Amino acid sequence: MKIILKNNDYLMQDLESIFRKEEDGAFLFDPKSGNLKYINCMGVNIYQLCSGNRSVADITSLIAENYRDIPERQIKEDIKNFLQDLIEMKFVTIQPQIHTDKRR
Amino acid sequence: MTENDQEYPLSTIYLYLTDRCNLRCSHCWITPAHNRSGENINSKIDIKYLKRAIIDAKSIGLTCVKLTGGEPFLRKDILDLIDFLSSNDIIVDIETNGTLLNEEIVERLNDSSVNQVSVSLDGASEKSHESIRKVAGCYQKALDGLALLTKSDIGTQIIMSLYEGNISDIEKLADIADRMEVGSLKINPIMPTGRGKDFFVNKENLSIEKLLSINRWIEEELSLKYDSIDICFDIPTGLKSLKSITSSQLYECNILNIIGILANGNISLCGIGQTETDLVMGNILRDDICNVWSNHHLLKKLRKDLPKNLTGICGRCIFKFRCLGACRASAYSLTGNLNSSFFLCDEAYKSGVFPESRMIN
Ligand code: SF4
Ligand code: SF4
Fold first, then answer.
1. Residues ≥6 apart with Cβ < 8 Å to A22
2. The whole model's pTM is what?
């Protein structure tokens, strides 16, 4: 089922996945399922921001700031799609409780 | 289709149409018998049995057949078989030494479902190609065959077998491929199987350090020189750069979805049954290919073992789920064990050049 990601979802790296950084990107590998994803340098930055205390909106804004030459709407869309992939492959999870806290 | 067939469809058959060849290549892993005259010959297995096996295999997922050999065009009924495959919507790939192609054959191929013809060229001159292929005149004939193919709509590829003696031909072959508008150049380091073993005994194979430096040169320089040809250096994924893993087509073996039919009708794990008879699982003259695919203990074990029970560096590699340990046939012929690690990655690991970032535990 396709996950619909909301701007106020908080994201956290899956701690059992293996993250391996290389010169021009990184690999994410899940030893249980064998899922493997290659990510480029922008992907690495996005993944590293998924530390549990940032929302989708925080992450997209932080990254978009560094890529001012790309239209904001487009880059935010791309980042969301990328995050959605990470969630579907279980490299990143949505944190329900922080989400609730933040709304107060 | 049973549940098992859905999980592991038999998508490709490697059809070793004949065990004969009109050349005598020193690196051939099949070690075919030489057919000196080059005249048409029919191998032992009648085409009607091949057709029956193909129809049966369609019911368990068959979509593609690779015709190889020996030299497949030594069989005069190859065109009849290709017509049959086309009428059954099976995609056909062909590996040939190119020397027996002529206008009439290429025209027939062009009207069929042939997707790609790969022609073996190991050198960019008569001297270097023929020093390994051992038959005078075969270089020009291969080039002529390739030229006919490039004028058709069929996809084309040059396959080069690489050893110490022809490193300097890589760029020249890429130039030829570019000039002739060939789709791709695939470079296979010679394997220590079949006649290729002699290259290792004579130390004419390339060390892992050399292979890695050639790989870097191809990725960072040579590939950038050409707009339209795809250059594939066939070393395992674990030894490629991240950029090339993500940006170019990887030639990975899908051994869990492939079966081989040898020239005598033997059903084998790809072509390895030719030299390793333990890996023959039946014969299409007497056995139902679907039954072999679903129930043979060797395939059942392979499905259970790959990639979970790969050993050595393959067992520790993050690519094992997609790479499946590169060529299982060569692993078996080197160690007698289908789960052992692939010799090139093993060598890389032992020399300390296997990338740390791709290892677990
Ligand atoms: S170590 Fe084995 S699984 Fe990993 S890339 Fe090499 S051959 Fe493939
Ligand atoms: S096991 Fe080796 S020879 Fe057989 S199909 Fe795979 S790569 Fe090719």
1. B242, B355, B357
2. 0.88
CA angle (B133 as vertex; B130, B139 as ends), nearest 5: 45
Distance in angstroms (rounded) separating the CA atoms of residues B186 and A103? 57
CA pair distance B174, B179, nearest whole angstrom: 9
Cβ within 8 Å of residue B340, ≥6 positions away: B310, B311, B312, B314, B331, B332, B334
Tokens at B360, concatenated: 């677990």
* Partners of B280 in beta bridges: B268
Ligand 2 centroid to B255 CA: how many Å?
Answer: 7
Does ligand 1 have an atom closer than 6 angstroms to the CB of B349?
Answer: no
Total structural domains within chain A: 1
Dump pLDDT digits (tens) for B326-355. Answer: 999 999 989 999 999 999 999 999 999 999
* Any domain includes A5: no
Which residue's entry shows tokens 């333990």? B278
B residues 155-214 lying closer than 8 A (beta carbon) to A: none
Q: Is residue A100 part of a domain?
A: no
Q: Which domain holds residue A14?
A: 10-93
Assess whether the C-beta atom of B141 lies below 6 angstroms from ligand 2.
Answer: no
CATH number, residue A79: 3.90.930.60
**Residue A103 in domain:** no
Residue A101 resides in a domain: no
* Beta strands B12-16 and A36-39, pairing class: unpaired
One-letter amino acid at B184 equals S
pLDDT digit string, tens, across residues B269-297: 998 888 899 999 999 999 999 999 999 99
Residue type, B180: M
